[in-house]
Amino acid sequence: MIKILRAKLHGIRVTGADLNYHGSISLDPLTCKRAGLLPTEFVEIWNKSSGARISTYVIYGTPGSRCCILNGAAARTCQPGDEVIIAAAEYVDPASLAGRRQTVLTFTPTNEIASIVTYQTESDGAGGYDFTIEETAAG
Hints:
Elements: E1 2-13, E2 16-18, E3 24-27, H1 29-35, E4 42-47, E5 53-60, E6 68-71, E7 83-92, E8 101-107, E9 113-123, E10 129-137
């Protein structure tokens, strides 16, 4: 088994940090559904502003809020306005890599979805893989 990317939010801005909450990251469920992130799913968070890297789980915030709130201990790693990357992974058999598609969302400074990027891996017919990236504007 290998660990691969399943979904990613690239460049979403932190809208809050609540140290006294019971933990996790609160994300707008509309954004999560568009990317394929599930409630209680573990994600990696990479802070582009500070370099901090953490792991926590997703909880859904208020629909339409465009929130990205770090809670509990995670609140110490990010400040409102920080730009972060949030990535979900899955384990797959390498033989099933061909045909996989992952969704990556990019964001405006106000956490509106700017574009939808699709990663696609296909067999190259010679035992290896081809990889393509397609980007479309959100709309």
